[in-house]
Design a protein that fits this description.
The protein is α/β, with parallel strands linked by helices. The protein is about 40% helix and about 20% strand. A 7-stranded mixed sheet has the order 3-2-1-4-5-7-6, with helices on both faces. It starts with a helix and ends with a helix. The protein binds S-adenosyl-L-homocysteine and magnesium ion (MG).
Length: about 210
């Protein structure tokens, strides 16, 4: 079966089951970024049913994606989808809570798209797994336009989540080791790049 058809089927499944996969515009933006910057190995936090991992892997034959998902049913669905697309050699699915999963692998890019309230934790935990001048890309930075909006009518849970996202944005802006740009595509995407001097520092520390 052809790729386009299989991807449309995953989109349809996500729509029907309410799985929050990336919006098309945001997805295209990220895959174009991978293409232009010749990104080869990617770590994704939050696979859901494998939609974004598959799209990223399809950019080029030499792209590999390692992706972590803590929900068993979604993980199983992701495994099936990756197999159907014949990408099981290049997409590695890990069933785990990302905050409990440790790796010493290095990646060109880390894509954060899991629990929005834990974004700062994911960033802090995995940024040491970046190659020099690597990128962290974060999805849903605007959270349906609710970030930096009036919180008075929000439920307590939603208000807490939005507050955490706002704190994450401040954390990115104030982070001296990374330069972050925010893009109004899809649900809002942030691209943070490790600064050159940070890598120099790290190189010096190794000697
Ligand atoms: N990147 C996917 C969508 C991910 S939706 C796509 O665009 O196709 C977010 C997913 O992150 C959910 O399936 C949720 O179960 C998972 N998640 C949330 N917190 C997590 C954590 N701490 N570790 C692993 N997965 C997590
Ligand atoms: Mg998302």
């Amino acid at each position: 079966m052809d790729q386009e058809y299989l991807i449309r089927k995953i989109e349809k499944y996500a729509d029907e089951k309410g799985v929050p996969i990336m919006e098309k515009e945001g997805m295209n933006f990220v895959t174009e970024f991978i293409r232009l910057n010749k990104i080869k190995n990617i770590l994704e936090i939050g696979s859901a049913i494998g939609y974004s991992a598959i799209n990223m892997a399809l950019v080029s034959d030499d792209v590999t994606v390692t992706t972590i998902e803590r929900d068993k049913d979604r993980y199983i669905e992701a495994v099936k989808n990756v197999k159907k697309l014949g990408l099981d050699k290049r997409v590695t699915l890990i069933f785990a809570d990302a905050l409990e999963f440790n790796t010493s692998e290095k990646y060109d890019m880390i894509f954060i798209d899991a629990a929005k309230s834990q974004y700062t934790k994911f960033f802090t935990k995995f940024s040491c797994n970046l190659n020099p001048r690597g990128y962290v890309i974060t999805d849903n930075i605007n959270f349906h336009g609710l970030v930096n909006s009036d919180k008075s009518k929000m439920s307590r849970n939603l208000r807490q989540l939005i507050t955490k996202l706002e704190r994450y944005i401040t954390f990115l802006k104030e982070n001296k080791r990374f330069k972050t740009r925010f893009f109004e595509v899809g649900d809002g995407v942030a691209i943070s790049r490790k600064r050159k001097d940070v890598d120099d520092e790290e190189d010096t520390n190794k000697d």
